[in-house]
Design brief:
By secondary structure, this protein is mostly helical. Among the domains are: 98 residues, no CATH class; 108 residues. It is 59% helix and 0% strand. The chain has 20 helices and no strands. α4 runs antiparallel to α7. The N and C termini lie far apart (52 Å).
Length: 457
């Protein structure tokens, strides 16, 4: 059955292709490559998730793009742009393109399907952003003026940028995005660090950007760099007066300590974060995350009863009423909590309970959280192998590998290595293990570039 078009009786934007080559460079694709991109192009174009990519001239000759330009409908041009085969077999998500344009996903949807935009300032800004050739447009692009730039409130990154970066990070991993975030920090945070006349909100946004850079450094396998970013973020958050943000960053330090196996530091940072939020009963999800991180530190220390008590506190905090969150807060929901519960159970050796928890959420992870989905599956596989169910764990590992193709995450690769070590003792007892180990070894070779140190920020 054909798909209905958003344009009434018009055909869908995507024009199916029978080629098995890369949509970007034309190179031959592997048989199991379902992305429409070869590995080099997949890596080269990661920046498109936070900014429009450089596209060749032939991009604008694609049928649906030409139609939208002829109809003088920029909304339809945006939809044709998103669905262009140059981007691979899956269209660019509306949330990503909306972030470029400074819109919400709902606003972009209305622009794509509603009446043509007639505001020249919007048309000019969007055309320049996407680098649409001037000769193809139905309006004239004014010559850019040379003038001094005054840095003020409007120079502070807005919520759309932060959301676009977070969304991209969940889908492609921190390694691909670290340089982009650091470039934004170079532009926005220096004035704050110098104690300039920026508004307090600027300190909060700069703190959020530093925290984001810390998570990306952690995801890239650079814990010292991550720690530095988190501590810079904490100082900026304290200057902003945003206690909730300061508590959240304490949680990031706790997570990093847990990942490094430092139970005392993990517990200390989580407790410090909870103390910061002691009088803030509106920060429900942030408190829940801190209780969960406290539990992880307690599990690392082998304090079972206290760990379970902290997890119960996390569950109560998550369901408590809380006010709307500012744009610099990271999401923490029921699925996030359940993954932390599973981590605690695995650390405490309760494999059966961990499998039950992960089985219940493995297919309920929100769309777009590629890294979280892959990590949840790898945790489930590790628990199954520990139970002696290597034959059932193998397809779960294969799914995690397929989900994380092209993902720039050293954390995910580390979990794969741990699973590979667990599988080695089952080589002779399970026929599915040897080919899986071969595939894992090939994956480690392909992702060896993740071991390259990040540049110092």
């Amino acid at each position: 059955m054909g798909r209905s078009s958003a344009y009434g009786g018009e055909p869908p934007v995507s024009e199916p292709s029978t080629t098995t080559g890369c949509a970007r460079c034309g190179g031959r694709l592997a048989r199991d490559n379902h992305t429409g991109r070869c590995a080099p192009c997949h890596t080269a174009e990661r920046g498109r998730l936070v900014a429009p990519p450089e596209v060749p001239g032939r991009f604008w000759e694609h049928g649906p793009v030409r139609r939208a330009l002829t109809e003088r409908h920029f909304g339809r041009l945006l939809r044709a742009y998103r669905h262009h085969p140059y981007h691979g077999r899956q269209p660019l998500p509306q949330t990503i393109v909306a972030g470029w344009l400074g819109l919400t996903q709902a606003q972009l949807s209305r622009v794509e399907t509603g009446a043509p935009v007639v505001h020249l300032d919007r048309l000019v800004r969007w055309a320049r952003l996407l680098q649409v050739p001037a000769a193809q447009l139905w309006f004239r692009l004014p010559q850019p003026r040379t003038e001094s730039v005054v840095i003020g409130d409007d120079a502070v990154p807005d919520s759309h940028l932060l959301q676009a970066l977070r969304s991209a990070d969940r889908q492609i991993g921190g390694r691909h995005l670290y340089a982009t975030v650091v470039a934004h920090l170079d532009r926005f945070s220096q004035r704050a660090l110098e104690g300039g006349s920026w508004p307090r909100r600027a300190f909060a946004v700069a703190a959020s950007m530093h925290e984001m850079a810390g998570w990306m450094a952690h995801d890239s396998g650079s814990p010292r760099l991550a720690d530095r970013h988190f501590r810079d973020a904490l100082g900026l958050a304290e200057r902003s007066g945003e206690t909730g943000l300061a508590g959240q960053i304490r949680g990031s330090l706790s997570h990093l300590a847990s990942h490094q196996g430092e139970a005392v530091a993990a517990i200390s940072h989580a407790v410090s974060g909870l103390n910061v939020l002691a009088d803030d009963r509106t920060a429900g999800s942030t408190r829940a995350r801190l209780f969960a991180l406290h539990a992880r530190g307690l599990a690392l220390a082998g304090r079972t009863d206290e760990c379970h008590a902290a997890l119960q506190q996390a569950e109560r905090a998550l369901t408590a009423p809380h006010a709307p969150r500012a744009e610099w807060f990271s999401p923490f929901d029921a699925n996030s909590l359940q993954v932390d519960v599973a981590r605690c159970l695995l650390r405490l050796g309760d494999l059966t309970a961990a499998v039950d928890v992960l089985d219940g959420i493995i297919d309920e992870q929100p769309v777009g959280r590629v890294r979280s989905q892959a990590l949840a599956r790898l945790l489930l596989a590790a628990a199954m192998i520990g139970q002696g169910r290597a034959d059932e764990a193998c397809p779960v590992v294969h799914q995690a590998m397929e989900q994380s193709t092209g993902l720039g995450s050293a954390v995910v690769v580390d979990h794969m290595r741990q699973v590979a070590l667990l599988l080695r003792s089952h080589v002779r007892r399970c026929a599915e293990v040897p080919p899986l180990l071969d595939r894992l070894q090939q994956t480690f070779q392909e992702r060896n570039w993740l071991a390259t140190p990040l540049p110092n920020a």
